[in-house]
Amino acid sequence: MSTFLGMPARPPRSPYGTGNLRGDEPFPRAAHRELGNGQLRRNLGKATTTIRTKRLNVTGELPDWEALRDAGSAIKTDAMNRLPELLEQLERKVTEHGGTVHWARDGAEANEIVARLVKATGSSEVIKVKSMATQEIGLNEHLESVGITPYETDLAELIVQLAHDKPSHILVPAIHRNRDEIRQIFLDRIPGVDPELDNVPAHLAAAARAYLREKFMATKVAVSGANFGVAETGTLSVVESEGNGRMCLTLPDTLITVMGIEKVLPRYQDLEVFLQLLPRSSTGERMNPYTSLWTGVTPDDGPQDFHLVLLDNGRTAALADAVGRAALNCIRCSACLNVCPVYERTGGHAYGSTYPGPIGAVLTPQLAGMHAADDDPNSSLPYASSLCGACFDACPVKIDIPSLLVELRHQNTEQSGTTPEKLAMRAAAAVMKRPALYTGAQKAAGLGRLVAGRDRTISRLPPPFAGWSDSRDTEAPPRQTFRAWFASDEGRAALRAAADEHDGSHAEHDPGDGRHDPGDEGHDHSHGEGEKK
Amino acid sequence: MTDARDTVLGRIRAALALAPTPATVVPRRYRTGRVLPDGERLALFTDRLLDYKAEVRPCTADRTAQVVADVLRDHGARRIGVPAGLDPRWLDAYDGDVSPDAADIPAPRLDALDAVVTASAAGCAETGTIFLDGSPDQGRRALSLVPDLHLCVVDLSSVEAGVPEVLARLVPERPTTLISGPSATSDIELERVEGVHGPRTLVVVIRKDV
Ligand code: SF4
């Protein structure tokens, strides 16, 4: 390895052209198309609102919620700092308890390992527990290409798989489908389903139960992800609701778990933090119906052949970035999606990656890069945000997503020479009814962050409002976060006035504004230039 | 060829060298070591279980067999499975078929059972969670998963106030299942449906004096 003066080589991103970490088109264009889907927006709106309310109820009832967030954040940061020793410890413990540990540099290697392990069992079918890591690496596609049939067993994943569709939300992947569509998918694709099946959710769930029950009883191999892997004890964990996870983790002879290297926790005791943070942030429940914890192989109980595949696939590249690294702390609760005004409008597909929403906008470019090809769609992701900060407030492990986005915008500007204003404007025009306000917000926030450094305080209004505020001697938003200031009456009024003024002088940058009343709920957005290549 | 393990570990070390960060101390200022009186734990645990749509039957230890028999009769359970180490006296008042479990019984045969009766390792009041750890009175994981009704006997003395307190009771290496109500999904238009793949009915018999 040719290293200069002992500088270590920068770890590689997830290889271009593999897996599901990149869409086919930039965010603004994809978002524009998704906005035309009224069904999607209604379902998403209902889902995000419902989950948001539930989450606030169950996080609000814990007097030590903030202390749990602090602990969760610190545990993850500590784990990242000590990743080599923790992974070696995890490997040792899993091996001691009768499991086998494999390492995969990237998705393709992980896919090959899993396929080889499945083939070694003689089985041509696997049952799967919902897992983002295996979605990320395109495991199902790979298994199919070598003659192995994967059956998704989470209800939503089953719907998505039967419809040859892609998940649109981390937690409720089929949220873009309504009951009539799901009924039709089942009638078309589930062999032997009752032709009289109606669209009542309980009946649809029962049809899935009957179909999958037979798979659970007969299939010899299961593939899962993991929410947590405890280095100290070698214990792995899957958090779920339906019981399909328990079925997959318990009934087959062979279990293969694919886990990103960032999922390791130092101590068993750390679960006491995450088993409070995750369910409350994710589904808004005090506890999810089922959590399974297992350590290697237990004689006479569950799979007697256990394999753990530890996956890099760009995670080490993210780790090499002092700011971006924080995205690896994510526990995939989806709280940031549910509070995001941009996600709520566009849904998950617009992000083009397995990881949508605010966390996807920071994680995807770091895992897979932003400049792997000309016009890399991932380079638009850091602009898919108004930087309003709601995601940061909601995040159970306190990932400062807005600061990470700003950092990525920096990096993108440096590498591509595109002006951030232009990119942000395109994203704004595609997503918001009032792009000027949105853009004003993102500028004030983003540039404010730059002005003030990384302590997230704003010392003065940034351009283009700087001149405006200077000349009017407006009180600058002093020593508070942008979000706090934005939420104040003063902040709102100042931004609105600034945005209106900005509209007048920069109308040509702002193709969408003025055509839609703020109260207009129509989705007939025709934004012209913003969506063109 | 360098193997994947060395490569990945090498990349991690390189990444940490490129972006070094100071060691982190984990602040654990959240609540631990909480102790609640029996009555409060019972009330909290019951409230949470009912919220999850579980059925709750509080009783005293001397009534265990009668309550177990009543529940099974109420649900029409004629054939039940039990772990090999279950206290046989709990079934004294039950007149249906009882199949003691064994490791070589295949899952489809468990599917033919109407119900399973198990003990439990611990409980958590604040979250309404039951913990099974595969001890002889709880059996292997498949047994408490496949039958459609799970009757779980929980001793109040094993129910802790919160999550940190209950995790401290567990043996990490044992296969552990946390159960908070019957299985559920909200995958279709976010409408909650109780009972998907796990037992569709969960009955918790809480023994107040044990
Ligand atoms: S970034 Fe935070 S809020 Fe978003 S999914 Fe990850 S843990 Fe949850």
From TrEMBL, chain B:
InterPro entries assigned to the protein according to its UniProt record, in alphabetical order: FTHF_cligase-like_sf (IPR024185), LUD_dom (IPR003741), NagB/RpiA_transferase-like (IPR037171)
Pfam families cross-referenced by the UniProt entry: LUD_dom
Residue span(s) of domain LUD: 90-206
PANTHER family membership: LACTATE UTILIZATION PROTEIN C
Protein name in the entry: LUD domain-containing protein
Species, as recorded: Streptomyces microflavus (Streptomyces lipmanii)
